[in-house]
Amino acid sequence: MLARELANTTPRLKIAAGFPHALSFSPGRGSATGHNRPDRGGPMFRPLRSGAAALAVAGLLGIVLTACGTPPWEQPQFSHDASAQRSSAPPTPTPTVTAVHNDLATGATQRQLQAGAIGVTVNYWADHLDQWTPQASKPLHFSLTTTLDGGSTQHVYLSRVTLTLAVSGPKGTLPAPSPLADQSTVSPGYLVSSPYSYSQTFVVPALDAAATSMQVTLEYELLLQTTPTSSDYAKQTATDTLTIALATG
């Protein structure tokens, strides 16, 4: 009796021709209780009394629901949006070029120096700077004159001038030639009180082929009379520095 009752009350699953898009259920044969009679509007689903039947229905419903989900190619992990890939790429660094300062860019410059009470005016100039390549000879011309604060009448003499080089290249400091100097051959020195002046040309020799600039330091050793008629002198020193770019093209 129990087996026949289960057979009569277990719903039967029918798969329509359009599976998985259409499923239909039909009730079992009628029983004395009348719970499986058709209702208005279509068949009435009976509660499932069989565990196996419930699992089968749930499995089929899962297949249908899965088939209606988002296609794999529309899921975020499968996206190949080119614009998104471009935005995540690191920017290409822009190379920076450091310009070399050149105190003789116009071919000449004037400096005002001070050594104690002595005012020193120095004019520098150079010809054909476009030919100042590292391995060429580079003549630097300069002239010097002095004045005294307060209009004093003592004389000023130049006893010695020294030029020292520092050479630079793309990777840093390079070897430099020995200092150049001019020592006075008269005592106490060369008279440089205005309107008198001192003129000289130092020729910078060939440098390392990788050189891009040179720093020129000039030291002027001056002797000042202690009084207008004295043979005693006070020594003062004025120092100046020029940075000169070299032609590397």
Task: Explain what this protein looks like in three dimensions.
The protein has about 250 residues and is mainly beta. It has two domains: about 1-90, no CATH class; about 110-245, Immunoglobulin-like. The chain has helices at about 1-10, 50-65, 80-90; strands at about 10-15, 25, 110-115, 120-125, 140-150, 155-170, 170-175, 180-185, 190, 200-205, 215-225, 235-245. Strands 6, 7, 8, 9, 11 and 12 form a six-stranded antiparallel β-sheet that branches. A four-stranded antiparallel β-sheet has the order 3-4-5-10, with no helix packed on it.
How far apart, in Å, are the first and last alpha carbons? 111 Å
According to CATH, the homologous superfamily of the largest domain is ApaG domain
**Rounded average pLDDT:** 78
* Category from helices, strands and their pairing: mainly beta
Order of helices and strands: HEEHHEEEEEEEEEE
Principal-axis shape equals: elongated
Main sheet properties: 6 strands, antiparallel
Portion of residues within helices: 10-25%
Number of helices: 3
